[in-house]
Amino acid sequence: MGSRCFSRVINACILFSITPPSLLIPIMQYSILRGEDNMESRATNESHMEGLNNWSHRWKFAFLVSSLVNILMTLSFIYILDLGTRCSNSFPEGGQMIYTPSEAAINYKLVKYHLGIGHDTQVYEQPPSPEVDAAWMELTKYSITKVSQSIAQSLPNKTWPVPGSADAPEYITGPDVFHALHCLDLLRMKLYPDHYSSKFPLNQRGHAEHCIGHIRQSLMCFGDMTMNVYQYSKNHGYAVLRTDVAHTCRDFDKLKAWTEENWLDLEDEMLALDIHGDPIQPHK
């Protein structure tokens, strides 16, 4: 339910609750008997007015209780409708439909994107330099993590044990976002083959094709529907696309902190070792 609609309903409830009793029941009018020596009539009238006052106090109390109950019932009904609306899009609690040990690190915040053109360019998009390489290394360094055996058994897929961890079994995992960043870094290097030819096997076409596919699937998986806008540009003389808008994002710093705490400094060659024992079997 939209916030504007919600506010209108709340205002309607408040207006109903404060409507004066005089607008809800007919107004009772009374005329005092005239005469100087009609004491009996005056006494009767005073007794009648006292009874009416007592009735009025009881009615006001009942009206107040009834109004409060009505407001609570209305708010409960609105909450149920709003809950149903929010649940109808199947967005899972924590943003995950399957188990991940990093669930506690998933938090959301607003992030305004950089345009990536001209002066609004971050270090990651700049030409090769030691500073650029260090920035990308910091992003992708913690791509492999380790989890305990009990956590590994809760994963939806099998995974391989950490070499040499038989006494206290640990298992190899890797948050997908960091693999996607690794793939993006590889494609970035492809833009500068002369600079990175001795550092990275850029002739591996299959690796690059895998990375294109992985990044594509990652973008389609999360399907960010934040609306970009078109605004007039004096430099161009027409409206241009503006992608530097605010997005609802997962807090990357918290995700990175989780991977640092669970980082496994593992070389690819270690995965080729002859390890005794089968990969962990997930719980059925």
Describe the structure.
The protein has 284 residues and is mainly alpha-helical. It folds into two domains: 3-87; 95-272, no CATH class. Helices cover 45% and strands 10% of the residues. It has helices at 3-17, 39-87, 130-140, 149-154, 176-190, 193-196, 205-222, 252-261, and strands at residues 108-112, 145-148, 170-173, 229-233, 238-242, 246-250. The chain has a two-stranded antiparallel sheet. The chain has a two-stranded antiparallel sheet with strand order 2-3. Helix 1 packs antiparallel against helix 2 (39-87) and helix 5 crosses helix 7 (205-222). The radius of gyration is 35 Å and the shape is flat. Pathway: Mycotoxin biosynthesis. Belongs to the ustYa family. The chain crosses the membrane at residues 12-32, 61-81. Keywords: Membrane, Transmembrane, Transmembrane helix.
What's this entry about, in short?
This protein is mostly helical. Helix content is 45%, strand content 10%. A hairpin with a 4-residue loop joins β4 and β5 (238-242).
Low-confidence stretches: 1-36
Considering DSSP H and I runs of 4 or more, what fraction of the residues is helical? 40-55%
Cα(first) to Cα(last) distance is 38 Å
Radius of gyration: 35 Å
Question: Structural class, please?
Answer: mainly alpha
Largest sheet: 2 strands, antiparallel
Number of strands: 6
Largest sheet strand order: 1-6
- Tally the structural domains: 2
- SSE arrangement, N to C: HHEHEHEHHHEEEH
Count up the helices.
Answer: 8
- Mean pLDDT level: 79
Pfam family, one: UstYa
GO biological process, one term: mycotoxin biosynthetic process
Pathway: Mycotoxin biosynthesis
Transmembrane segments: 12-32, 61-81
